[in-house]
Amino acid sequence: MNRYLKNLDRIEFVVTMGCTGRCKHCSEGSHVFAGEHIDGETAAKAVTEVCRHYDIKSLMTFGGEPLLFPEAVCSIHRAAAEASIKHRDVITNGFFSTDRQRIREVAEMLAKSGVNRIMLSVDAFHQETIPLEPVDHFAECVREAGVFIELHPAWLVSAEDRNPYNSKTTELIGFFAEKGFSADSGNVIFPKGSALKYLLEYFDGNTVQSDPYEEDPEDIRSLCFEADGSVLGGNIYSSDIMDIIEVYTAVK
Ligand code: SF4
Description:
The protein is of the alpha/beta class. The chain contains seven helices and ten strands. The chain has one domain (about 10-245): Aldolase class I (TIM Barrel). The protein has helices at about 40-55, 70-80, 100-115, 130-145, 165-175, 195-200, 240-245, and strands at about 10-15, 60, 85-90, 115-120, 150, 155, 185-190, 220-225, 230, 235. The strands form three sheets. Strands 5-4-3-2-1-8 form a six-stranded parallel beta sheet, with helices on one face. Strands 6-7 form a two-stranded parallel sheet. Helix 2 packs parallel to helix 3 (about 100-115) and helix 3 (about 100-115) packs parallel to helix 4 (about 130-145). The structure holds iron/sulfur cluster. The site of iron/sulfur cluster (SF4) has 12 residues, from loops.
């Protein structure tokens, strides 16, 4: 076993960098919202293979907006459920279609594939460019399909800080709370990508923060597959995932 992955217990997939949102806090910056997405079958095979060798406890699919490609998301989660990964999450902004029937269909597909938590990105930043109505309908459809769904808001400075963005976010959480949806603690926006450009005034330059999305290359706990199939310096379209893991060497 590769010593740099001895604590591996999580898998993540960036399903696509394509997105329906244009959030000013996006850590990915003003990236080109290309439509490339991970191939569901290849990704599922990698999940099955990794789970033969590691005790993976959680798997998450996100983006971009992963539900632009629900078939790929569902293939990944089916493989995760078959491999008995306990926590199977999707982070989504909830806006991938305006067709109410299609939204219901996708919610039901997610339920069937074994997703057991949907983390819905709703806050002042997402709702600047994402309409609330289809998101609200998606949340209802997911609940009716029997999958646990909760809001996952982004806070500026801290959840307690009083600024206009946090006030709007609190208002949106209230809108969903009235319908019986709860919110998790969310995340505090990290100064990276577009956030650095548009929200700079809110970041204290003297405070050294560590990037919550960064892995220690000498102790990889989460295997993160990019939308183009790349992972740990290799690519699952051209190599077997276990070969990629075997030859991985940490570079700091
Ligand atoms: S924060 Fe999420 S929803 Fe918003 S632009 Fe970035 S990837 Fe898209």
